[in-house]
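in:
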């Protein structure tokens, strides 16, 4: 065993020109970040032929790159400690899983590694110039701009935009993952990512109140959880380094989830996050036969529809769970009450299936207003999607700690799935909810005349 270990160790020391070692992303220390580094861009190619061992390529050596296939560039952002992006390998492999393409990792860690953000930001246009020279050579070899796809993270999103500008917006697609806000907020289009930088530009904004860019930058701009605090991320500085970067990085992990078959996140075009939470945008603003846009890799399914808009831009909102795969399942809870007086409060709803699995939604972002014989439609969001609901429970609360306890008299409650509109809608009639007391019941199928 010791001899085998020694032999493997020797193999790892073989020089790269024998093609027996694998080039890796540049690893730098915090010392490098303090003293600063000069820019050096390294391009590493992965394909299904060499998906675990990169080839270093440049404008004179294209390696295994097949110019007849899609080429996806992954461009990282600011690296204040010099470390390797923890998500990079997963993103490379997930892209190769979904499509036979060229994946080029743009390693500009020598340049992005610095404790002074301004120094990294100042190098973004220089990185774009390097990429322009490489793509020019790809075009000479027969590649098409239509097949060029750039995924830029933070500063990398603006680098992708600068490259797109050099080709007058003819790149196939750019995805911006929480484009950097500091030094870019409020800048004119020529100084940042812009919808005109590619034939299709989609953006995920996950940290608009700190490290990310707030305003729309693409043809479709996705705002998970309103673009602010992301579920599962630390809320205070006691969370350490994660407190500063968790919201910002969530855009990458949401994009990664779109490449896996266990979760396709649906987003809802809307004017505001509040309107989305109030259930005003669940039909996507288009005929029901059209599906709502999907977050991430398949967002370009909406490309042709957006071309018909003037301007061809929209914002889309959605909520996520705290952990991977992040999917939330939407239902409408329709309630008709018969109280004489108006009641204001929140509703908590739990669903339980026959196996005992329970999922809960608290609809408490703002008080709902219940009036006699008026239907109130509340958007409920669950972490799990239960196919067959055996029991439902409801809790009504006014949020008042002191004072009288109120009743909510429900004439009819109806539950309907947005993700699966073909499922039978579930109803219950003549319920009286005592404030802060859970009412558990078995639903019945709604009759057709009430559907």
């Amino acid at each position: 065993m010791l001899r085998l270990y020694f032999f493997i160790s020797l193999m790892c020391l073989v020089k790269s020109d024998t093609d027996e070692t694998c080039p890796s992303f540049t690893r730098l220390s915090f010392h490098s970040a303090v003293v600063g580094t000069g820019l050096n861009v390294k391009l590493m190619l992965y394909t299904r032929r060499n998906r675990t061992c990169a080839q270093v390529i440049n404008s004179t050596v294209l390696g295994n790159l097949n110019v007849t296939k899609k080429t996806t560039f992954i461009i990282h952002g600011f690296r204040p400690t010099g470390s390797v992006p923890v998500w990079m390998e997963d993103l490379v492999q997930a892209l190769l899983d979904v499509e036979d393409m060229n994946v080029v990792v743009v390693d500009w860690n020598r340049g992005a590694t610095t404790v002074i953000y301004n120094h990294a930001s100042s190098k973004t246009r220089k990185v774009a110039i390097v990429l322009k020279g490489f793509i020019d050579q790809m075009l000479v070899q027969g590649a098409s701009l239509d097949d060029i796809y750039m995924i830029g993270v933070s500063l990398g999103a603006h680098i992708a935009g600068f490259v797109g500008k050099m080709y007058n917006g003819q790149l196939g697609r750019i995805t911006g993952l929480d484009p950097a806000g500091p030094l870019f907020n409020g800048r004119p289009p020529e100084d940042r990512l812009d919808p005109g930088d590619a034939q299709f530009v989609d953006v995920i904004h996950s940290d608009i109140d700190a490290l990310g860019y707030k305003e729309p930058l693409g043809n479709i701009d996705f705002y998970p959880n309103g673009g602010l605090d992301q579920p599962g991320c630390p809320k205070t500085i006691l969370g350490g380094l994660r407190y500063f970067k968790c919201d910002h990085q969530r855009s990458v992990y949401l994009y990664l989830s779109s490449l896996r078959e266990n979760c396709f996140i649906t987003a809802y075009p809307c004017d505001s996050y509040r309107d989305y939470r109030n259930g005003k945008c669940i039909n996507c603003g288009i005929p029901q036969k059209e599906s709502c846009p999907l977050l991430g890799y398949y967002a370009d399914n909406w490309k042709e529809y957006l071309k018909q808009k003037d301007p061809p831009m929209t914002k889309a909102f959605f909520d996520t769970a705290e952990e991977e795969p992040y999917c939330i399942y939407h239902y409408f809870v329709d309630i008709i009450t018969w109280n004489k007086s108006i009641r204001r409060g929140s509703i908590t709803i739990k669903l339980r299936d026959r196996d005992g699995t329970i999922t809960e939604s608290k609809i408490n972002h703002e008080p709902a207003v219940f009036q006699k014989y008026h239907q109130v439609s509340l958007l409920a969001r669950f972490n799990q999607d239960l196919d067959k609901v055996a029991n439902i429970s409801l809790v009504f609360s006014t949020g008042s700690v002191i004072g009288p306890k109120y009743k909510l008299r429900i004439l009819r409650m109806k539950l309907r799935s947005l993700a699966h509109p073909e499922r039978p809608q579930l109803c219950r009639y003549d319920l009286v909810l005592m404030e802060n007391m859970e009412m558990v019941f078995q639903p019945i199928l709604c009759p057709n005349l009430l559907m």
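note: The CA atoms of residues 351 and 392 lie 5 Å apart.
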